[in-house]
Amino acid sequence: MASYYNEHTVLWQDGRIVKATEAKTDLYGQSLHYGYAVFEGIRSYRTASGETKIFKPVEHYDRLARSAAALNMPYRYTSEELIAATYEVLKLNNLQDAYIRPIVYGPANMSFNPNTESFTVIQAWEMAPFLGDRLLRVMTSSFQRPNPKGFKIEAKASGHYVNSILASQEAKGKGFDEALLTDMNGYIAEGPGANIFFERNGRLFTPALGNILPGITRATVLQLCEELDIPVEEGSFTPTDLSRADSAFFCGTAAEVIGWSAYDDYNFPKPWAETLGQKIQQAYNDLVIEKAGEKSSEKAEVKIAQAATA
Ligand code: PMP
């Protein structure tokens, strides 16, 4: 098993800094028994200037608040408070390139009744930026994503991840790197922990919102497409559409932007270095470490000029 903490690690637990080895939770908890919790996966980076910066912290903590609301969980912090707490956790653990895991969970409660309180913990551990040059072989999962009529699929809820674990374990058991799940209608949806884009004839395509987690990286990729003048379409696409694509990639906070070499028995024809995904990957890597590319700073100037006249 990976090591997430040692005897020096601290975490934030509802306003208190606690040693990871001493922090406690309740074994009679509703969250442990029923998967009734919400969480986030966030990254921080050592930026080009040497400073530690959390990438899109407001977006992540706002999504955590929406996830809690979607599950009727009491939620008592502002995003600003939790961002400050996160920087404290990073600093106290001496972390720069880190993966940050806030989780909101319920008290001891074996019933299905709502709670009057919930608890929040922020953990972080070192995670180097993912370079993403090793391409993935991905298989169509036999598992579908949860039906949005049965779950609040837009929430990042712990229980949903049983589906992710089943799909990922199946793919790895069959010798693939990762799974791609379809939605209840058989359209391609997402990976166990990442959203998907594919390229065909100079355009990118990605499943529309509705049956997927609205990824913050997905939103960032859409924003980069606009900045880089890459045409992109959101819609409903079949596994057959994907198996005619020129290239494909996953995107997510942990995975960042990572290309595929194959989908089931189909090998993508375009060398990764020539794909739109590779351009997006480069732009994403620059963005998270706040390295200003020439093109993005030019665009920024245009935007500032436009804003000034609006
Ligand atoms: N889909 C699923 C199921 C995920 O778990 C994740 C990771 N949070 C994503 C997509 C990507 O989301 P994000 O870009 O916000 O990390």
Q: Name the poorly predicted regions.
A: 294-310
Biggest beta sheet summary: 9 strands, mixed
Supply the helix-strand structural class.
alpha+beta
CATH class of the largest domain: Alpha Beta
Radius of gyration: 20 Å
- Described by its quaternary structure, the protein is single chain
What is the number of helical segments per DSSP (H or I, 4+ residues)?
Answer: 8
What proportion of the residues form beta strands (DSSP E)? 25-35%
Helix content: 25-40%
Main features:
2 domains; 310 residues; disordered C terminus; binds 4'-deoxy-4'-aminopyridoxal-5'-phosphate; 7-stranded antiparallel beta sheet; alpha+beta; 8 helices; D-amino Acid Aminotransferase, Chain A, domain 2
What's the short version?
With 310 residues, the protein is an alpha+beta fold. The chain has helices at residues 30-34, 57-70, 79-92, 161-173, 216-227, 239-242, 276-288, 294-309; strands at residues 10-13, 16-19, 37-39, 42-46, 52-54, 98-105, 119-126, 136-144, 178-182, 188-190, 195-200, 203-207, 232-235, 247-252, 256-263, 266-267. The protein folds into two domains: 10-125, D-amino Acid Aminotransferase, Chain A, domain 1 (2-Layer Sandwich), CATH 3.30.470.10; 136-309, D-amino Acid Aminotransferase, subunit A, domain 2 (D-amino Acid Aminotransferase, Chain A, domain 2, Alpha-Beta Barrel), CATH 3.20.10.10.
